[in-house]
Amino acid sequence: MRLEKVSLRSEIESLARTLGERALAHAAVCATAESCTAGGAAWAVTSVAGSSAWFDRGFVTYTNASKVEMLGVSQATLAAHGAVSVQTAAEMALGVLAHAPLATVAASITGIAGPGGAVPGKPVGTVCFGFARRTASGAPVVETVVEHFSGDRELVRLQSVRRALQGLIAAVSAKAPD
Fold this sequence. Notes:
This protein has 178 residues and is of the alpha/beta class.
């Protein structure tokens, strides 16, 4: 497992550099909202020298209250679907764009890193992602993904950061529909 974590960290560094290159090439500005990774994606991105040219901010919204207060996630969504849901991930990503006006693409991460926290239908390792981007007209579009990662808490978090960076790269590179 140690070798896997080292490999993941190296891949994350590479993905962060690739994200920066793509963001600069597409004049994109990225931002994040993170729960179970507690700022890990933002840390990875800002480890790249010059990232201030293409990364605006990261929101760490670990509690439901912070998701509501900082990102405008609906209490009704949290009550109906829970914090670990594609609905919440979508609202988090859209909330980033609403609260970070410079951002053109956003990623959100909300999940169960473990070792506890599992609920029926949502085992440890369940992580939901939202990837939002502004279209040419300025209207946002959002896509969501659910992943089921294995491993200990650190491994789940590293895999989540990797997946968020992969999704940001895709969002930056995508031609947004109007």
